[in-house]
Amino acid sequence: MVEMSLHFSQTERDLAAGGVLTIDLAALRHNYSVITQRIAPTRAAAVVKANAYGLGASRVAPAFYEAGCRDFFVAHLGEAIALKPHLNPDATIYVLNGLQPGSEAACARENLLPVLNSLEQIENWARLARTIGSKLPALLQIDTGMARLGLSAKELDRIIDEPSLLDGIDIKFVISHLASGDEPENPANAAQLATLTAALARLPKLPVAFSNSGGCFLEKTYYFDLARPGVALYGVGPAPRHDFENPIRPVLTLSARVIQVRDVDEGAAIGYGGTFIAPRPMRIATIAVGYADGWFRSLSNKGCAFFGDTRLPVVGRVSMDSITLDVTALPEDTLKLGSLVELIGPHQRLEDVARDCDTIPYEILTALGDRYARIYVDRSTADRQS
Ligand SMILES: *Cc1c(COP(=O)(O)O)cnc(C)c1O
C-alpha cells in the first residue's frame, strides 16, 4: 500500500486510493479450521509465500496462528526473515526454494528451516552443521513427478548409498509436491503417491509433508503427517464435486472508485486504440483500477464490474490506472464521482475473474498490488493497515 503519513484520517486514506480491498481474517481462520478438521489427525501448515498470496503476510499469518497453525511455508529466505517478527517463537517457518550458497548461516542464525532440494543444498547445510558443531534442522524434498524441485531418483539413490551425506542434518520432514492435486481424477496423483511411498520405504522412518490444497481434498492416503495448503486458505476451494459441499469461504472483496461518468454518442471510440466503438448512445463510467492493480489488460472488452445486481461490462482497453465500463443499464445519476463498484465480491468471484483472464485465481491474487486501501475486517470489527 502507498505509505501515507499519520495525519491522514482513515477515510482520507480510503479516498486517496483507487479501490478498497477488504480481507476477512475470520474467513481465513474458518478456512484453516475446516481444512484441519478434514485432514485430522494430520496437521495443517499454512503456505504464506508471495506475501500470503498477495493478501499481506504480516496480517494473514498471525490469523492462522490464532486458529492453531504453527507451521508456515514461504518460498524465499527473505520472505521468512520478514515474516518472523510477526509470529510467536513457537511457530516454525520453512523456506520452500531452499538456500542460495552463502545464505546458510543467516538461515540457521534466524532459526528458519530450509527445504533441501538438491545434493548441493544438502552438502552446503551439512558443511555449516560441521562448522558450528551441532545438528541443523531441515526438510528434505523428493521429486515424485514434477521435475521442479527436490531430489531426482538418481540423487535419492546417492544418499541411500551414502547416508553420511546427511550427517549433521536433522530431517524434520520428507516433503514432495503434487503437480495435479486439484484434479481428483488425474492418475498422476496416484503415480506420485506410489513414487513417494517407494522412496519412503528406502529411507529411515521420518514424518512426511505432501498435500497442497488440492491434496487436502483427495483421499486420506495423501495426507501423511503435515499438509501444506495455500490457495484454499485464501478462499479458493475445490472444483464442485458430487460427494461434498465446498466448505471454503471467500476471503476478499474488491471495489473500485468511479472517477468520471459521461454520456457518449453512437460511434464514439472508447479507450486506447479505439478498440470499442459505441454501437448506440451510451453512458460510460471510468473507474480507478487498471492493470497496474492486477486487473489484467487481457480483460479489455471482456469481463465486468457490478453495481448492486447490475452487470457493468468492461468496454475498451484496460489502462494502467483505469477501466471504462458501460453503465447504460443503470438509471442516470446512480453512479457519481466517488461511487464504488464491485470487482470481486458476492456477484463476481475471484474464480470468475480468473476464468475471464484465462488464468488461475493464484495469479489474480498475487497480482493485486499495493495501491488499494486495504481493510482487514474480523466479523463485525474493522481495523486497517496504514
Ligand atoms: C505453493 C505451494 C504449496 C501450496 O499450494 P496450493 O495449491 O496453493 O495449496 C504447497 N507446497 C509447495 C511446495 C508449494 O510450492
Notes on the structure:
The modification N6-(pyridoxal phosphate)lysine is found at residue 49. Its EC number is 5.1.1.1. The active site is at residues 49, 272. Catalyzes the interconversion of L-alanine and D-alanine. May also act on other amino acids. Its cofactor is pyridoxal 5'-phosphate. Mean pLDDT is 95; it is low at 380-386. Helices cover 27% and strands 23% of the residues. The N and C termini lie close together (8 Å). α2 (25-39) crosses α4 (57-66). By secondary structure, the protein is of the alpha/beta class. It has 12 helices and 20 strands. The strands form 5 sheets. Strands 1, 11, 14, 17, 18, 19 and 20 form a 7-stranded mixed beta sheet that branches. 43% of the residues are buried. Pyridoxal-5'-phosphate binds at residues 47, 49, 96, 177, 212-214, 228-232.
Strand content: 15-25%
**What gap, in angstroms, lies between the N and C termini?**
8 Å
**What are the bound molecules?**
pyridoxal-5'-phosphate
**Dominant shape:** elongated
**How helix-rich are the residues, as a percent range?**
25-40%
Number of strands: 20
Structural class: alpha/beta
Overall average residue pLDDT: 95
Number of helices: 12
Protein name: Alanine racemase
Pfam family, one: Ala_racemase_C
Binding site for substrate: 148, 320
Cofactor: pyridoxal 5'-phosphate
Essential attributes:
binds pyridoxal-5'-phosphate, pyridoxal phosphate, alpha/beta, 7-stranded mixed β-sheet, 27% helix, 7-stranded parallel β-sheet, Ala_racemase_N, elongated, 386 residues, 20 strands
